[in-house]
Automatic annotation (TrEMBL):
Protein name, entry field: ATP-dependent zinc metalloprotease FtsH
Cofactor mode of binding and number, as noted: Binds 1 zinc ion per subunit.
PANTHER family: ATP-DEPENDENT ZINC METALLOPROTEASE YME1L1, METALLOPROTEASE M41 FTSH
First-tier enzyme category under EC: hydrolase
Residues annotated for ATP binding in this entry: G212, M213, P214, G215, T216, G217, K218, T219
Native source organism of the sequence: uncultured spirochete
Length: 626
């Protein structure tokens, strides 16, 4: 047993190829330096003094030359005997053919030898060393740029391969998304047992497109699909295909699918497919030859392989509307799976998964947090849990409590509190009046969402904030809710007008929000009696590659005037209602503003206590149709 343990301890983890290659390059580099030093030490002669030929003849006549070596009858080196008997080496050059030189040397008894010039290995190495150093330096730099010993690998795929050696992700790690999982179970079943499908003559989709908002977990679901099927998983971003060199993207597509076939059965996942799969042809900036060539190659590759090869392509995008139709036809991305935003129960499950990784106090109400975070994605919830842990660390806690999660939620929903910002009392009072106007209207409008918190602590770019949260997940909005939303948006503007007789620039964003809602109500949602249920114009949509640059109006000037009049009527009615309620409730408005000046932040329960309201709302006033 002990011998086995000793042997196992002697085993060291194998180094990656890139590290091995770098070590070999450094070994060669230092070996050359050592050889160069050896040459300098042994290859060079002792330091010799070069003397004129005339001086050499003078020393010869005086008998001070001990020995000489004549090289190619051009050069002479040798030793002189000094006055104190010390020897000194010298060199000189014969400027002309001296026929009497040998006789004079013999007469003086000088030891004479001859030599033919040659090039020693050390001398060759010395002359080539600068070139060798230069080539090695360039080679090392290219290896560093290419990485992983892939010199000249521009056309190679940059896909990352996840296999059994990595920590597998399964559907147990993905909370919610039951419908998406159900759609992908067929892919998993096929990769595990393809004979069952072949026997029935059924064809599994070649490609599955995951569609959803950012942060909903598309990449995680793709990894979990590969983990459930226990097959290799190639992960590559759409932007990795396109480079400045023409043809590189197409080459990487070919290499990616070639690698997939070698590792079959496997899953190829292309994230952000819209980066390479946008509609070909016209658009902002015209066509993009390299991107289109890459897309064409991808279309060819997806046509060129069969599901019998055991390669399934998954892709993710949050902009399916800009994808080329050829990508979405049957035979390529046969199936689209919507990865939706999580509902209350799914948010609760997501929070539990992320909370399991940190120490959480018993007072943390996961159900309450899930209900207080409508419209948030899985990534938002993961960020909230992490922020809560950071808040606990700042307070030197050993466990994350409910107040830490609430602080993290407020930070994500409202922005970072800027407590160091110095605001004059007059401006702070104006902000309190403004936010009190927003907050107070929540208790007088029947269709508005409940107030969550009102604060005059600057957060983000706002000097104050009145935040409301819906009681439940809602996927469509009524006319009454939208109208009350406009009224609340005008609450700050109306409060400033009532108290000060003038308004500030703080209402700019509120006015913009109210106008945007009113415009969509009239033009897109058919909520105006004067215009009717007609969709008019799409010029407000963003411009993307592969879409028309200019969006034309599909209605007349007379209709445009009616639209403007309907929008103006709707906004005027909402502002009038806000002014009416806040004028009638001016005492409550000022009391709420005074309270905000004292403690800066009020919860819904604090406002209700101040207003003397336990549950529900004060007045049931209906919305006005325009």
């Amino acid at each position: 047993m002990s011998d086995q343990n000793d042997n196992s301890n002697d085993k060291r983890p194998e180094l990656p190829p890139a590290v091995k290659g770098n070590r070999a390059a450094l070994a060669v580099f230092f070996s050359l330096i050592v050889l160069f030093g050896v040459y300098l030490f042994f290859g060079q002669k002792e330091n010799s003094r070069e003397i004129p030929y005339s001086s050499f003849l003078s020393y010869l006549d005086l008998g001070e030359v001990k020995s000489v070596r004549i090289i190619d009858q051009r050069d002479i080196d040798g030793y002189l005997i000094g006055k104190n008997g010390a020897e000194m080496s010298f060199t000189t050059k014969i400027p002309y053919f001296d026929s009497e030189l040998m006789a004079r040397l013999q007469n003086k008894g000088v030891s004479v030898t001859g030599a033919v010039s040659g090039t020693s290995p050390f001398q060759i190495l010395f002359e080539l060393t600068p070139w060798i150093f230069g080539f090695i330096l360039i080679w090392i730099m290219m290896r560093q740029m290419q990485g992983n010993n892939k010199a000249f690998s521009f056309g190679k795929s940059k896909a990352k391969l996840y296999n059994d050696s990595e920590k597998r992700v399964t559907f147990d790690d993905v909370a919610g998304q039951k419908e998406a999982k159900y759609e992908l179970m067929e892919v998993i079943d096929y990769l595990k047992n393809p004979k069952k499908f072949v026997k029935m003559g059924a064809k599994i989709p070649k490609g599955v497109l995951l569609v959803g908002m950012p942060g909903t977990g598309k990449t995680l679901i793709a990894k979990a699909t590969a983990g459930e099927a226990n097959v290799p998983f190639f992960h590559m971003s759409g932007s990795d295909f396109v480079e400045m060199f023409v043809g590189v993207g197409a080459s990487r597509v070919r290499d990616l699918f070639e690698q997939g076939r070698k590792h079959a059965p496997c899953i190829i996942f292309i994230d952000e497919l819209d980066a390479v799969g946008r509609t070909r042809g016209s658009g902002l900036g015209g066509g993009h030859d390299e991107r289109e060539q890459t897309l064409n190659q991808m279309l060819v590759e997806m046509d060129g392989f069969d599901t019998k090869d055991g390669v399934i392509v998954l892709a993710a995008t949050n902009r399916p509307d800009v994808l080329d139709p050829a990508l979405l036809r049957p035979g390529r991305f046969d199936r689209q799976v919507v990865v939706a935003m999580p509902d209350v129960q799914e948010r609760k499950d997501i929070l539990k998964i992320h909370m399991s990784k940190i120490p959480v106090a018993e007072n943390v109400d996961v159900e309450r947090l899930a209900r207080a975070t409508p419209g948030t994605s899985g990534a938002d919830l993961a960020n909230m849990v992490n922020e809560a842990a950071l808040f606990a660390i700042r307070k030197s806690k050993d466990i994350v409590e409910m107040e830490d999660f609430e602080d993290a939620r407020d930070k994500i929903l409202m922005g970072v509190a800027r407590k160091s910002l110095v605001i004059a009392d007059e401006e702070k009072r104006s902000t309190a009046i403004h936010e009190s106007g927003h907050a107070l209207l929540h208790y007088f409008l029947p269709n508005s969402d409940p107030l969550h918190k009102v604060t005059i602590v600057p957060r983000g770019r706002a000097l104050g904030l009145a935040l409301s949260l819906p009681e439940k997940d809602t996927y469509s909005r009524t006319y009454g809710w939208l109208y009350d939303r406009i009224v609340i948006s005008y609450g700050g503007y109306a409060a400033e007008k009532i108290v000060y007789g003038e308004t500030t620039t703080g209402a700019a964003q509120d006015i913009k929000q109210a106008t945007e809602i009113a415009r969509k109500m009239v033009r897109e949602w058919g909520m105006s009696d004067a215009i009717g249920p007609v969709s008019l114009g799409d010029e407000e949509e963003p411009i993307f590659l592969g879409r028309e640059i200019a969006q034309h109006k599909d209605y007349s000037e007379e209709t445009a005037r009616k639209i403007d009049a309907a929008i103006q009527s709707l906004l005027s009615s909402a502002l009038e209602k806000a002014m009416s309620i806040l004028t009638r409730e001016k005492d409550r408005l000022l009391a709420l503003a005074d309270r905000l000046m004292q403690i800066e932040t009020l919860e819904d329960s604090d406002v209700r206590t101040l207003l003397g309201l336990q549950d529900g709302k004060f007045v049931e006033e209906g919305a006005v149709k325009c």
